[in-house]
Specification:
The chain has 128 residues and is mainly α. Helices cover 36% and strands 6% of the residues.
């Protein structure tokens, strides 16, 4: 509650903390909801698209991820925001989460800000 109060008027960045979350379960749930709409006749299967799936994710009202910081030296995503990180920049650090400090965060932001965001395109496609 204190964190909510202190950051109530902040704008610009969104921090999401997900506990007991699994992206595969989230995507399956979205598909099930869409299948129910098809079964009821309120949606045609041919009309299921990227946007329809996104509208049924837990994170439907939250912007997609720009930077994913993976702590503990692991080089994997671990079923975390699989849909939402399609074009995110990934930053891996050996620092364990309990030891992750402001300096570690600033280093991740510095590296992130030096990258060219291409959203799935090549450097050549961006230049043209």
């Amino acid at each position: 509650n204190k964190a909510i109060e202190l950051t109530r008027n902040n704008i610009g960045a969104t921090l999401i903390v997900a506990l007991n979350y699994g992206s595969q379960a989230e995507i399956v749930r979205a598909c099930q909801l869409l299948a129910e709409e098809v079964q009821r006749g309120s949606l045609e299967a041919k009309d299921i698209n990227h946007k329809k799936i996104e509208e049924n994710l837990y994170t439907k009202d939250i912007p997609n991820v720009d930077l994913l910081i993976r702590t503990s030296g692991e080089q994997r995503i671990s079923n975390f925001l699989l849909w939402q990180i399609a074009y995110a920049e990934l930053y891996f650090t050996d620092v364990l989460w309990p030891d992750f400090r402001k300096e570690d965060f600033l280093k991740a932001i510095q590296i992130y800000s030096s990258r060219e965001r291409r959203y799935g395109k090549t450097g050549e496609q961006i230049k043209s």
